[in-house]
UniProtKB/TrEMBL annotation:
UniProt gene name: pfkA
Domain annotation Phosphofructokinase: ranges: 3-309
Protein name: ATP-dependent 6-phosphofructokinase
Pathway info: Carbohydrate degradation; glycolysis; D-glyceraldehyde 3-phosphate and glycerone phosphate from D-glucose: step 3/4
HAMAP family tied to this protein: Phosphofructokinase_III (MF_01976)
Top-level class of the enzyme under EC nomenclature: transferase
Protein localization: Cytoplasm
Keywords noted in UniProt: ATP-binding, Cytoplasm, Glycolysis, Kinase, Magnesium, Metal-binding, Nucleotide-binding, Transferase
Superkingdom assignment: Bacteria
Annotated positions binding ATP: G11, R74, V75, G111, N112, G113, T114
């Protein structure tokens, strides 16, 4: 007999359902009595006791379905120890609901912030398994997060479409790619779509170098240029500011431009007089059906999580390292961000074929 709880927390992504399906199928195929409780809308469901008993049928036909059958929400880690507006102690409430249902374990699907709360619950004595979801691929300890490659596909297709129109009009186009504070998604989608310039937070850009790269292309006879810009891209000057100064600068920039790409476009336009267009695919990147790679990854991670649960082996994130599923102690990975390193092979390879990072 096993009683497990499931919840999905933070921004959604593709393959959340596929992962839950993998876990439940892995357990249901091997355990006689299984009870699965799904908490609704992330940690909120666990705090306020909003849950439903799920059956195998709930997990059938969801391998290809985007979003999450449980719903999700953001409950920031930094406020988790603060009582809610009704004075409820969130951590205590989560523990009480866990014990009330006599759960053997709680499986939490989420990104970095979610993982920190998952680790806190582990420290509070709950049996926890964390599954690394995010289109940002920024979770330390796993080579890949589910959702990432599906988002790479969408961002790549967006840039592919821009390519044809950019070449017809001889324009400079900026496509802004999600990824929060890291550049994985922009790097992969940028390289996969043949972007000419890729700007990511890990390599602060010099606008002069960006313009040089655009001009160099024009000189070679290429009338158009495509820039893949991460939503967290930052200039060299801004990167040199103190935390406080940067916060102020960002607040000022926000009043002038909806996002970083528009600020970059304005600078290029001012310096060169060129016609620039900005495209922001936004949340499309998190939507739709998971790509085959993510379905496979989600199924493997889900199955590996089921194996841990059957062995009562808790307190881990289930990730993938060098092609093999692996349990990584939550205490080791929680709170760490996996960023692109400026001397990564991908960056060197991109630079070798002439892609500019504006540095
Ligand atoms: O973490 C996933 C992500 O899509 C980031 O890439 C992006 O910065 C953020 O979530 C957007 O958050 P929200 O859905 O709250 O606007």
């Amino acid at each position: 007999m096993k009683r497990i709880g499931l919840l999905t927390s933070g921004g959604d992504c593709q393959a959340l359902n596929a992962t839950m399906r993998g876990i439940v199928k892995g357990l249901a195929s091997n355990i006689q009595d299984l009870e699965v409780y799904g908490f609704e809308n992330g940690y909120k469901g666990l705090i306020y006791g909003d849950y439903r008993l799920l059956t195998s049928r709930d997990f059938s036909g969801i391998l290809t379905r985007g979003g999450t059958i449980l719903g999700t929400s953001r409950v920031p880690f930094k406020t988790i120890r603060e009582p809610d507006e009704r004075g409820i102690d969130k951590v205590e409430a989560m523990k009480q609901n866990y014990y009330k249902l006599r759960l053997d374990c709680l499986v939490i699907l989420g990104g970095n912030g979610t993982q920190k709360t998952a680790n806190l619950l582990r420290e509070e004595g709950l049996n926890i398994i964390h599954m690394p979801k995010t289109i940002d691929n920024d979770i330390w300890g796993t080579d890949m997060t589910f959702g990432f490659y599906s988002a790479v596909n969408i961002a790549t297709e967006a840039i592919d479409c821009i390519h044809t129109t950019a070449s017809s009009h001889n324009r400079v186009f900026i496509v802004e790619v999600m990824g929060h504070k890291v550049g994985w998604l922009t790097l992969y989608a940028g390289m996969a779509s043949g972007a000419d310039i890729i700007l990511i937070p890990e390599i602060p850009y010099d606008i002069k170098k960006v313009i040089e790269a655009i001009n160099a292309r024009a000189k070679r006879g290429s009338g158009f240029t495509i820039l893949a810009v991460a939503e967290g891209a930052i200039s060299k000057e801004d990167a040199a500011l103190s935390k406080k100064e940067l916060k102020k600068k960002m607040e000022e920039d926000k009043k002038l431009y909806p996002s970083v790409s528009y600020a970059i476009a304005a600078e290029i336009e001012k310096e060169t007089g060129m016609e620039i267009r900005v495209t922001v695919p936004g949340h499309m990147q998190r939507g739709g059906s998971p790509c085959p790679y993510d379905r496979m990854l989600a199924t493997r991670l889900g199955s590996a999580a089921a194996k841990l649960i059957m062995a009562d082996d808790y307190g881990y994130m289930v990730g993938i390292v060098n092609g093999k599923t692996k349990k990584i102690p939550l205490g080791e990975c929680a709170g760490k961000l996996k960023m692109v390193t400026p001397d990564a092979q991908e960056i060197k390879e991109a630079k070798r074929i002439g892609i500019s990072f504006g540095d």
